[in-house]
Amino acid sequence: MRQAWRVVDVRSAEKALMATVPDGTLMQRAAAGLARRCALLLQESGGVYGATVVLLVGSGDNGGDALYAGARLASRGAAVLAILLQPDRVHAEGLRALRRAGGRTAGDLPPRADLVVDGIVGIGATGGLRAPAAALVNRLAGLRGRDGARAPVVAVDVPSGVTVDTGDVPGDAVRADVTVTFGCLKPAHVVGAAAALAGHVELIDIGLGATLRADPAVRVADVSDISSWWPRPSASSDKYNRGVVGVATGSARYPGAAVLSVTGAQAGPTGMVRYSGSAAREVLAGHPSVVATERVSESGRVQAWVCGSGLGTGEDARAELRGVLATSLPVLLDADALTLLADGQHADELRRDAPLVLTPHDGEFARLTGAAPGADRLGAALGLAAELDAVVLLKGDRTIVATPAGEAWVNPTGSAELATAGSGDVLAGLLGSLLAAGLPADRAAVSAAYVHGLAGRRAGQDGPATSADVAEALRPVLADLL
Prior knowledge:
Elements: E1 2-4, H1 7-18, H2 25-43, E2 52-57, H3 60-74, E3 79-84, H4 92-100, E4 104-106, E5 115-119, H5 131-137, E6 153-156, E7 178-182, H6 192-197, E8 200-204, E9 218-220, H7 223-229, E10 244-248, H8 255-267, E11 272-276, H9 280-286, E12 291-293, E13 304-307, H10 315-325, E14 331-333, H11 336-341, E15 356-358, H12 362-369, H13 377-388, E16 391-394, E17 400-402, E18 408-410, H14 423-436, H15 441-459, H16 467-481
Parallel strand pairs: 2-3, 2-5, 3-4, 5-6, 6-7, 7-8, 10-11, 10-13, 11-12, 13-14, 14-15, 15-16
Antiparallel strand pairs: 1-9, 16-17, 17-18
Helix pairs in contact: 2-3, 3-4, 7-15, 8-9, 8-14, 8-16, 14-15, 14-16, 15-16
C-alpha cells in the first residue's frame, strides 16, 4: 500500500524533523537523491560527463533543490545552465554552490539539452504556471539532446503548475517524465489530471517518516493488498457460505445490463447468484447456474444486493429499489438506482444500519448533489460519503473510493478501455459479489475497482474492447492475481 499526505501535514512533519537536524540537511538529502536520479537518466543517453542540463529555477526551496542537484551534476562534468525565473528571490546558497561547481546562469533555453530539471514551484504553489514560466515550459518538447531524442523532464517534488492537494491542473503545467519527490507522496502524484503529468514517481527518503503523524489524505492499494483481502473458498465451503449475491438489474429495454452485471458477479468469490428482474431469459441463456425470479421479494436468501444497472426509472424500478433498501443487507446502488435517488424520495430509506455503496460517474454524481465533482474530486467524494453515510466509488480515470469515516483510496489500474458502455455494470456485479462474500464495503470497492481496471487493460491488448471483453478478462486477471 502507498499513501499520500496533504501539504499542511508535510510541512508540519518537515518542521518537526528540521528541529532535530543541522540547518540545510533536508535540502542536501533531497538534492542528493534528485541528482542521483538525473544521473541515471543521463546514463541512458551517453552519461553525465559532457551532457547539457537545464535547470528551470523558481524561488524558494524547490529552486534550491534544483540548484544543489545541478551543482552535483556539474561537478561530474555536466554543462549545467540555470534559468532563473525570479532572480531577486533565488535560493542564494544554492546558486553559489552551482557556480562554484562550474554551472552558470542563462536567460533562455539553449539550442539543445539532454535533461531538463523543473524546479519552478513546489508544493506550496497554487494555480497554473504564470506567463513567463508557461512560455518556457511549452517549448520544452522541442529540445533535443546529443542522441537526437527529446530531452527528458525531471520534476522536483511535483510537476510545476498542478494543485498538490487535489490533483487538479488549473492551467499550464509541466509534463514530467520523472518526478522525484521527497519524504512522502502527495495527492497530486496519484489523483486527478496531475497524476498523468507526474510520469514515473520516485520517492526519496529524507527521514520524514517518523514525523508524519497525520492520517494520509489518500491511500493506493497494491497487488499484495488485493490478493490478501480477496475471499477464497476453503475445504469446508459450499455455495451458500461462500456468499449469495442478489442482482436486481436490467429490464426488457436493457437486458444487456442484467447479463453484464451477472457476469461480473459470477467472476467474483461468491458461490451463487440470484437474479431478480425482467431479463431472466437473457441472463439464463448465458448463465444457467443463476437462480432467477421476477422480483426482489421472491428472490430467497442472499447476503448482499446489487441494484440499478439498466433497471429503468419507472414505478416498477422504484419498487424494486425500495425492496432492496428495506433489507438489512449490504447494498450497492448503481446507474438507474442513483437516478432514482436524486429526487429525494428515498432519503429516509437510505438511513440504514447495513453497508451502502454508491458507484456514480460524474454525471450521476451531479444528479445526486446538484454539482459536478469539480477540481477537488477527493473532497467531493468524501463529502458525499459523509452526507449519505455510504461508501462512494467515484468513477473516472483515477477512480476514488471514499468512506463516511473520511478515508479515501484511489485506484491505480484505470484504463481508457473502461470508457465503454456497460463497463460499470460489470464492476457493479463484481463489487456486489465481494460484499456478499463478507468483505467490508470499503475493501470490496477498492478491490473491485483494482481488478476491473486490470481487466480493462487486458481486454484492450488486442484492440478496442467492449464491456463483454472486460467481463471475459476478469477470470484470467484473477487467476494471475490470486
